[in-house]
């Protein structure tokens, strides 16, 4: 069984390599699409991404592009509203704020 991705895309094999700058995988992946069959999709790393809209410092994946999800071995599509997603630093800050909130003020 091959893993099923959010976009209904299966990774058969990939030609991905790890980016030495951001540590993400990039290159191209051979995926199976219900409509197109087996196709190659370009996979971008964070270096090809855009600046985080919240902190203006971190990098997020470029909207309307593809990224490789190493945890699941699948290629995921970044939707057009992907520019709204927070970067890793912002997500981490939100988690810490939530933890502080649970602990109470002061
Ligand atoms: Zn990179
Ligand atoms: Zn950010």
Can you characterise this structure?
This protein is an alpha+beta fold and 106 residues long. It is 15% helix and 37% strand. Bound molecules: zinc ion (ZN) (2 copies). One zinc ion (ZN) binds next to loops.
Structure annotation, total helices: 1
What is the distance, rounded to the nearest whole angstrom, between the alpha carbons of the first and last residues? 51 Å
Helix content range: 10-25%
**Proportion of beta-strand residues:** 35-45%
> Element order, helices and strands?
EEEEEEEH
Bound molecules: zinc ion
**Oligomeric grouping of the chains:** single chain
Residue stretches low in confidence (pLDDT < 50, at least 5 long) are 1-6
**What radius of gyration results from the CA coordinates?**
16 Å
Global geometry: elongated
